[in-house]
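ugh finaly. both done.
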Amino acid sequence: MAITTVLLALSLLVWRVSSTIHSTVPANPLPFESKQPDGSKTPLLQFWGDGTDNYLTDESGFVVVENEGWFVYAQEDSNGSEQDATTEGSLRARRLEASPARNMLTPSQHVVGSIDPSTVSGLTTVAQRKHHSQQHRRLQQSIVDTTSPNQRKLYTDTTFQSLILLLRFADHTDRELPTSAQFVKFFNKKDLSLIINDIAPTGSVHELFWDNSYGSLDMNAVVTDWITLSETEEYYANGEYGFQRLVYGIHEALSQVFEGQELEGINKIDGLGILHSGYGAEYAGKDCFNQKNVNRIWSHQAGSLGFVNPLSNFVTGGNQTEGIASLVVPDRYFVASALRNKCGSDITRIGIVAHEMGHFLGLPDLYDKTFDGNGCGNYDPMSKSWGWDGTGLYPPIFSAWSKMTLGWLKPLEITANGQYFIGSSANVPQVYIIRKGFADGEYLLIENRQPEGFDSQLKGGGIAVWHIDEHASDQRGFLGQDGYPFNGNHYKVALLQADGDQHLERGTNNGDASDLWHKDSDFTVLGPSSSTGTVVQDAEKYTVPNTDSNRHGNVTISGIWIHNFTASGEYMGFTVHGLGINVNASKGFPHPSVSKVDISFTTSPPTSTPTAVKRVPSPTTSPTASSSPSTEPPTITSPPSVDPSTVFKYYPDWLYLGCKRKSLAEFSSWEKNKYDSIGDCCDKSMPWTYSSCVQASVRLMGLSLTQAQIEGAAPIQMSVGHNGHEADVPP
């Protein structure tokens, strides 16, 4: 039987293939202008939601719909006879069409930009629009696979190889597109000193995951040349963002790749990525080719691809297949645009790809799928991969929970009262966990987030304290919500925001400068809610943020207090008490691979329990007596000085990172052939390398050493590199 016969059979079968949508990326958050039919521009509009439920608003929060090409304000229609306030063709609009209970939003006669909507009665605000979120959740359950993260298979190997298909629609043959070689750099660039402004100005996909995993995950991609499909972009989009028909094009492209046997040298395919030649539908409005976003492809992840390698049918010897014939194509895949924005030929940014690769590794979405709240906000790419500036250039680093879930770090458990120190999670795999006082699968995670690396646009650095509940329903909960906190509503991965405003839960923003903890944060003490006893029963006395346990609405006092935060910086300290055990030494210095480090430095726990108090923004206002701390927590002192040669003896990871980062910063290169080991890199016979290595490592550890101390440190001779691997060939 000829290969072409098998491919023909596959082409006939593919029409019965129906992909399962697992998730769609959130809409691009950047405000934009659009043209009206008369050529005038609209005021700034904003796109909300994802591929299953989305809508437009103006800057004042009034919902906007399209009507015969015009952008107009929406109004309520209790009969439900017109369109929903989503973009035209939304799955939700069509699939809920027959629901008599829905309160529909229809076009008004008021053109956006021609009136002040606040002066017109009956127009719909975003708050009213969000009442449809319950219907949206039911829709998601019908078309999106909401597999529990506990049921997802986590990827634990140290290498991950993707196959990236570049798909060009039949009507895009004359468009200028990024080259396959450019995408190889986009995915695989490994030289930290090489900045490619037009391809990967903030780093490649490989670098993003290498940095986040602290060198434990080597992610690479094999990228095909552009494959021209037989149908147009609009055909595959089919008025529903490509969620169903695009799978036909994927099968067609895979058949071409295997028929041409273009995958020689690949030994596995861990993930399948699709980059297409159109602009992403997650950008609202028409593109430069006048294509509506509903007739473009919305970036998403899906499964049930069902593609069988045709070459495997021609290999004899049972299961002893080799080379390209042995490759198995995964059922799960992601789809994204190869381009950014809605015009031009600029290559896409890494934000969306980072999010989808996170799914490949087994992570769930961490954004609020009702879009009433904002989930983890800009503190995890599984929540907001667009980043703080909305461009996708700076997807945030993965949160402590995501890194722990993927095995990139092992948290140090705090079981005793005392002072603890922690380095920036952008550089150090160091996270604390507190389990005592919480239900099974519920705990606190503590990390230090600083504005550096992919987190460089963080609004303000400090300690991030996460409340984790693996068994939560993942519905947002906040003060003032009906039944809260006894309704059991809270995110599975929830940031305990230091300003107490719960902006992430309320959907007010995706994070701000007052979310993280430090000595000048709005709240300086994190402890139990104001209720007394061991069980919280009075919602009126319940305060946030707190360290209470909440399992399905059963709220109990954990008794944990976290306070005495130091100033925000690369290296921070804090005090924990309420655990019933006191220690006479500081902990956590400086690396989690060592479970206990005793330093000649002591502090006593408070003699009485401090009360949470929020800082008063105005100096003319004083806190009430009831909110004043019952005792002033002791002032934390600076970390002790430590002989760097002693520290390096136990912490080669720090030495490795410090040497490499400093070398790159000063010499714009990492001379792989020059240094056979870390010992060579930090050999005193090469003064600049040794000094730079020590200085950078010391900076990462937050120590204060004089130049004399640095120069007088003992020579370092070791060959063990990052994560305990040999460092003969640094990454």
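ok and the 2nd:
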Amino acid sequence: MEIHAQVTTEVKKIITFLILLFFLFDQFSAVEVAGMVTQTEMEERIRVSLEPESCDVVVLSEEDRKYGVVIVSRKFNDVPLVKRHRMVNDLFKDELLSGEIHALTITAKPLP
């Protein structure tokens, strides 16, 4: 009877561990899938806000969440480079703060 109680206790511990492991894995997977901003979403956000003549978004490293953008817009005319970069960074502020976007390489040119 004592051995049966010990086995039952060990089985309960293993089941509890497996449930906890499954829960943690499920949460991690949901963050990875739900937390990825897409190239299309980035392009759309840039188009709506900056009305560019041209806009290219490149995934430099999906694994490392690194992106590059090249934007040519009238909204950059007579705007200093630092402010142009700030305008683009502000579009992705939440993603940059959360780590969803780790790095964003920006080329922001005024329309000639």
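summary for the 2nd one i guess: The chain has two domains: 1-34, 39-110.
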